[in-house]
Amino acid sequence: MTDSKYYKRTIVKETISSTHLQEDRNLRIFLPPGYNEVLSYPVMYCQDGEDFFNFGRVATHMTRLILDEDYEPVIIVGVDVDKSVRTSEYSPDGTRFEPYTRFFAEELIPYIEQKYAARQERSERVLAGDSLGGTVSLHIALNYPELFDKVLSLSGAFYESTLARLTQETDLSRLDMYMVIGLQEESVVTDHGTLDFLSFNRRAHEILVERGAKPLYSEQEGKHVWGFWQGVLPEALQYFYNR
């Protein structure tokens, strides 16, 4: 992807004030080529917004798919996070987890859908995240079933609390997920110690299937780093936007 046409894109930086978080939160919003306010577009919401755009190159990938492979244009919203409180916001056991998930569902979604030409149907929204970003994305989809039924998980940190939450569900047939995990993620160093992400994802996949979900689950050569996730992002985008 060296052609300069992939880098001629519109990324708007905004700040949203959150009552739930009691602070402002920075956003970066990719508007697809040919964006027109009289039309409407599906939206992908990314945790770790800065990383998704800078390390994942999600805007570049999406631009290429739109220009070269005639994909439907998509708005991508990246929600930045302060890394010092990331675990507190993204982990189900974190003190900022509930305020963050409420901000996402109750403040961010209405803000985007009022200001941009975003489709407002549940089927037109995708939640995306890496590691704990995948965790919080899944929990938001579980807690707000009226808003979300699609989740893109890059090496989700599906610890015991998340597995227990999934087990509480009786019917997850509405849930549509793309899950990828690296085969070299058996000993990932985290705030919670060195953990086996591969086993966590295998168990999460089993529970999801037991409860009626049909995730696209993939184990590939890769470590718990953006170098791996950047490479699989095009496949994930294709899963949601080329069907």
Automatic annotation (TrEMBL):
Organism the protein comes from: Paenibacillus swuensis
Domain of life: Bacteria
Lineage: Bacteria, Bacillati, Bacillota, Bacilli, Bacillales
Listed name of the protein: Enterochelin esterase
InterPro entries: AB_hydrolase_fold, Esterase-like, Mycobacterial_A85_antigen
